[in-house]
Task: structure prediction
Amino acid sequence: MSWRERLTAAILAVLTGCVFIWFNFNGLIRHFGKQGLSSDSTFSDSVVSVSLLPKQILSSSPEALYLWMVTCFVGIWIYLGALLVLALVRLRAPLAGFGVLGVFGGGFAPAILSWTGLLLWSILKVLGIIFGFIFHILGVVMVFIAKILVFAAPVLLAIAVVAVIVVVWKENGPKPLLFVAVGAALLYFLAPALKFIFEKIKLALIWIAEVLTFLFGWLPAVLAWLVKAILVLLCITSIIGFIGCLGQILIDQFKTAMEAGRSQKGVLTASFSLGVSIALILLVAAGSPQTAIAQGHSTLSVSEQHETPSHAAGTTALAKKKRRKNRQHLKPPISSPPVVVAPPPAPVPMAGIATTIDRAWTESTFIFKSASPTRIFLATLPASVEEWARKTFRTASAPIFDALVLALVLGFSLIGLLRGILSRAELEYRMRFYNRDLLAIAVIPLLVVILMIGASEGNQE
Result:
């Protein structure tokens, strides 16, 4: 690729990543505009207004999600039918099998990854217990040996000194021992003179340090400024690179869809991409598995208002006084017609994300109508991951943008399958991932965390 093509691809990836963040992280952008930019009200209002545009472009109502999910489920059935036609045209049954395997593999990829992670974590825990026991035993032995050495240190030191003296005496006679004794005596008597010389050297070194500080005192400030500038540039470059990686991942998803009809690899990768997209939507739906109840403003009747504790506490003494005062001139009670108080309106049921997706599945499929995709998906997850998903996506709104992306990917996949059906011959799989995608692979853990935060808080009011 030439530098112009690379620059164009990079700009396109960054712009796509900005659109992705704009639609999925608008809640975080709005929070940043309200809290982080509160000092500049004009710019803060502009950021908040821009963050609200995705909700105006794509409605977050359950009915909008229902229509998009019906489109996606119908598109999945059409995609599987086109795979069957492609297999018949090329007389290769494995093509259809690879397609179905890819869709189911992608759909259950979160469950497979979760169970694999739990298995690895369990293995690490067992290994940690084993190595911890071994290190504990070694630690106890080392502490025991250290205690013995501490108590026996004077005796061992005396034995070592006597042994050295005996060996030196036998090998070289008394002269080396005499020289050692004389040297120790000289050091003892010359210690004040050596201390005086050291103080003078220390004063000279302090003077040299002050001169160097006067001459080069500006250098630390300049170096600190350069380090800060480099760190800021690295942060900006990392943010732009991360946004570009998000956009490139989305672009590569569409590229993979266009290669669906070329070969078995194309069918498998495109189908797996579709399955992963469906799995992410079902994972977001874990936060609202049942029908939610819209909380309305309830009003109290007159009698209920007088029976509230705060009002009753203030009127008890006044009521007793009035009773004592009016006891002498009581009048017969005047009958009045009963006051009919209308009951508060019943709570209006509001369809949750999971309920809407299940309803879309029922309306768009001709088999397994009673099946619930959300419940089947959650049943495959470990209990801890399911509980985490319910808490994380508890306040998430409808994943309209994810459904829209899935519908577009389905459209590109159908175009790729149509190209494969018309060509009849198997084509070379020419999908390439460039070196800049290595950055996306390196930041996958951070990407997963940010996607979870965006899905749980990005589309909230």
Notes: The chain has two domains: 3-43+62-124+224-292+348-457, 136-223. The chain has a mean pLDDT of 76. Strands lie at 292-294, 348-350.
